[in-house]
Amino acid sequence: MSNTNEKAPENLTSIAEVEDAKLAATTEQSKSQSRIVLERFLRHKPAMVSAVVLVLVTLLAFTSIGFGPVPGWWKQSYLDAGSVVNGGKPTFSLLPTWLGGSGIAWGDHPFGQDSVGKDYFALVMNGTQKSIIIGVVVGLVGTFLGAVIGAVAGYFRGWVDEVLMRITDLFIVIPLLVLAAVLGQIAGRGSTSIIALAVVLGLVTWTGLARLVRGEILSLREREYVSAAQAMGSRTSRVIFKHLLPNTIGVIVVNATFAIAGAILLESSLSFLGFGVQQPESSLGLLISQYQNAFLTRPWLFWWPGMTIVVIALAVNFLGDGLRDAFDPRQTGKRRRRRAGLFAMPTRKEKP
Amino acid sequence: MLKFILKRLGSAVGVLFAASLLLYVLVINSGDPLGDLRESNAKNREYLMQQRIDYMNLEQPWYLRYITWLGGVGRCFVGSCDLGKNVNGIEVTGLLANAASSTLRLVLLATIIAAILGIAIGVLTAVRQYSGLDYLVTFLTFLFFSLPVFWAAVLLKEYMAIGYNNWLEDPQISIGTSILIGVVVGLALQMLLAGSLKRRGLTFIITAVFVPLLLQYSVWLNFYRYPQMGPAILVVLTLLLALSATAMTVGLKEKKVLYPALITVVLVLGMYYATFWLLQDANTWLLVIGGALAVAVPALIGKFMGGRLSKAAASVSALVGFVGAGLTVLDHIFRAWPGFLDLKGRPIATIGSSTANLGGGYWDSFLDNATQLLLPTIVLAIISLASYSRYTRSSMLEVQQQDYIRTARSKGLSERTVIFRHAFRNALIPIATIAAFDFAGLIGGAVVTETVFGWKGMGDLFITGLHAIDPAPVMAFFLVTGTAAVLFNLLADIVYALLDPRIRV
């Protein structure tokens, strides 16, 4: 085992020592897996733009009208009716005066007013808050359930797997929109809280992730480090949560992101059909369905909430796309060589 | 294989049974079916309540009601379904038949269009990965994924339908608008056709000049109220198709494919004159039989003339024959259009599935159905199209990395053969299963789309049922969608195993 590398010191005897010495001589830091993923993610331009947009929208929604007891900087409340100014037209304008617009102006009612003079900016911001909360809660509940059920089914196999997967099939066989509508109606009658609705939606949107995680775990559980952990006498819960689930974090995170976008769209569809968020609570979907008949007279009542949904869902989907590329182990180098396969796609949770 | 199918069917029946029980319990517990009557002031309130209790068997405990329902479903196997009565005492079986046929009409066309276009776009963007076209399409698919369906549908109704109807009163296109359209189409086309900078520039200039001229000419002809095509344009279009289809599959040098395609073009022209009077007052059967013949006869010609390329020749000729027949029908539709406008002044409808008391001949009701279908089909197709193109793209990219593609390239095969013969056919395998899922999902109805467009289909059955806390229509809806989901899932697995020899079941 003489050294073949001339730069390596003479007195080393094993290949491992030579490699160690070479590594120590280089200035390049070796990177941890999470560091590599983070760097790839930060290089993904659409995802970065989306992240900025998402943070801005969230900040705007939560600081403008305030959240809970904390007051916001926006002076009008979404509850107060007032006098309708100029037919309730939006005062927000970006068109400069020399093009016939009224200059860059924010105005008293940037998004206009509805027919009883409520400030529409405050209403939309309130709806945005609620939609974001619903999306995040559904994403968390669905992801937690999906990951745990998938992991348990994949780890134990046998009859546990059989039972859990048949339950998953049960939820897949009933169309999601149907199940969500029925449960939404029940939740809506019990209370008007959006959290109740969000938790209920989370209870029905875990199936896809459960199948994916189960597949991953089925292959991971055959690895040596799992046998090692079992041989050392680790508890089953520790093997699952410490050793197995962290290795499926890519699938879980990517799916959680797409689940949030899907949940926001699902909520808006449900509210539109009348099975989702109930008055006096509000959400973007409910705003659209409340004001859809006003389209001809006050089109802005229709445009603003719809555009907000599109912007949020689009940003979240691009974020998920960036995460998927970042977690894809097959990626090397600076240029994205190829996309991940079919393992995660932005999905519409409800059928059109 | 048979054992696998039986096992899957067995577990599917169990899952369906459990799901139906779950849904039934959930639906009857989702509210008070007599709620609206309790609050009403009608004089015969007691009678109405008693009547509804009778219709829905409300005096029985829930498990008896479920068993009664299940027994009714069980009788489907002996040919006399009984899915119960809805709140108004109407037999759900009859309602379901109407709703299913209406939804099928809505969904079938949208699925076919979405699959064909989506797969084509997916292949194109995969072949030109990281091009401007790829980025544009990627952005658009993400946009479509993020679009609330009802919002997009209402926008289409307000801008496209009503805008078009208003415009059609006096179809004019100003010079400025037509130049703008020309520039946009030119930009899109140069992106689509790609190639060297010179070729792209040339494509752009030619289109940007040609399209505005064409638009102005069509306005001068008053084409939008009095469209016409005639045999000359029919022949030119089918000829172009024959040439490009041959070039795409085997190349223009292969006379064994080119000649049957050209013969089909001549046949199409002959049939145009032969069927001219017959098609003046057509009926559906005539169109179906004609369409079948227009595929079968050219396919036979291609098969006999094609020699070693008989497969390619048959499919190219069949395609030309089919499109030629379609264009012939289009010519007759054009002829019927002015008369149709007299019957229905604002053609593109925003609500319902047909116009009442329209009158007119076969082509008028044909056009009426088509204009009613237009908007919901666009909405459904756009959203399915996004997922098809996305899946096809990633599937194509996956396949293009395989060793057998490198082998095919290094053998010296042309890029066309590599893409269409080796890559595309393998990339289609996962798409076949996705198409099965997608169709199963869509049968369940485009619940939201149906609501926006006032379409009395499966979705309507479900929504009105759920609002009234009426289990019978909701369960009828589930029976169809659940069975479809289970069957198409099974079908997808079987198709996958048949197409991909690596899969063993």
From TrEMBL, chain A:
InterPro entries: BP-dependent_transpt_permease, MetI-like, MetI-like_sf, OppC_N. GO terms for cellular component: plasma membrane. Residues 128-320 form the ABC transmembrane type-1 domain. The keyword Transcription regulation does not apply. It is found in: Cell membrane. Keywords: Cell membrane, Membrane, Transmembrane, Transmembrane helix, Transport. SUPFAM superfamilies: MetI-like. Gene3D superfamilies: MetI-like. The chain crosses the membrane at residues 47-67, 132-156, 168-188, 194-213, 244-266, 301-320. The keyword ATP-binding does not apply. It is a multi-pass membrane protein. It holds the Pfam family OppC_N. It comes from the Bacteria. One of its GO terms (biological process) is transmembrane transport. Its main location: membrane. Residues 330-352 are annotated as: Disordered. Belongs to the binding-protein-dependent transport system permease family. This is ABC transporter permease.
TrEMBL record, chain B:
Pfam families: BPD_transp_1 (PF00528). Keywords: Cell membrane, Membrane, Transmembrane, Transmembrane helix, Transport. Its main location: membrane. The chain crosses the membrane at residues 12-31, 106-126, 133-153, 173-194, 201-220, 232-250, 257-279, 285-305, 312-334, 373-391, 427-455, 475-499. One of its GO terms (cellular component) is plasma membrane. GO terms for biological process: transmembrane transport. It is a multi-pass membrane protein. It is found in: Cell membrane. Residues 100-496 form the ABC transmembrane type-1 domain. Coiled coil: none annotated. InterPro entries: MetI-like, MetI-like_sf. The keyword Transmembrane helix applies. Belongs to the binding-protein-dependent transport system permease family. This is ABC transmembrane type-1 domain-containing protein.
